[in-house]
Amino acid sequence: MTETGLGELLATGRTSDIHAWGDDKVIKVFKDDVDTAMIAKEIRDSATVHQLGVTPIRYHGAVTMPDGRMGIVVDRLHGDALTTVAERRPYKIASVARRLAREHTAIHATATTDFDDVRDVAQNLLHTCPLSGLTLGERDALRRQIQALPEGNSVLHLDFHPLNTFEHGTGIATIDWQSTASGHPAADVAATCLLFTEAELFPGISAFQRALYQSVRRVMLRSYLAEYTRITGISRAEIAPWMTTARILRLGWLDVESEREPLLTRIRASIATTS
């Protein structure tokens, strides 16, 4: 269907804008340059994760805007992002990080074959434009490295961070399922570690703000990892081999200019250490 009116702009991100849609729903309107196949995947996966009981947020349908952009309608959240909770109460940063870990653990407790294997996703991205600087030999080495990683069947979010997790009702709800896959939980934890350590901070911030945010990231990551490994028994040694896969996913999907060379450098370095 096609709709003309949008409610209040609630949030904006790299790939979409979020608007109110009536009293109890929101619409995620994708930007013009987002691949239609990625949108179709998010539509499909948003419905599936709710059916699996992974998130309480329901999918209500796709909408074509008058300007041709696509949108998806989902339940409106009734709480703050965990990032906001931590910003308002800095003394709760470690506590928020532990809540983040518990939510991640709950997601990984659900097994499924409905999504692509994360190892296959990463291998397919080796042929995309952002990774075109790799030689054929480097791609072959990375493919072997990925294939050697352990299999799994857990639901994986792969963009899991405090801005995508919200207080909702009496619990936590995770949003933005555009990168969903299945596989070993350590793959998803590695992706979160990358977001805390290597992903670009907000553009245009001052040097002081950068240092502050980096400090907060370190505290959150330390508490998140401690809680996740305590609950699951998955060790940091099991997570580390997935970091290269996480970098391939990040670069292949988003290709953030400031991240491109550092990610490629680390991806290449992993070939040397595993050869």
UniProtKB/TrEMBL annotation:
Q: Which residues form a coiled coil?
A: none
Q: MF terms per GO, please?
A: transferase activity
Q: What is the organism lineage in this UniProt record? A: Bacteria, Bacillati, Actinomycetota, Actinomycetes, Mycobacteriales
Give the protein name, as stated in the record: Phosphotransferase
What UniProt keywords are attached to this protein's entry? Transferase
**Provenance organism:** Gordonia desulfuricans
- SUPFAM superfamilies given for it? Protein kinase-like (PK-like) (SSF56112)
Identify the residues that the record assigns to the Aminoglycoside phosphotransferase domain, covering every copy.
Answer: 39-209
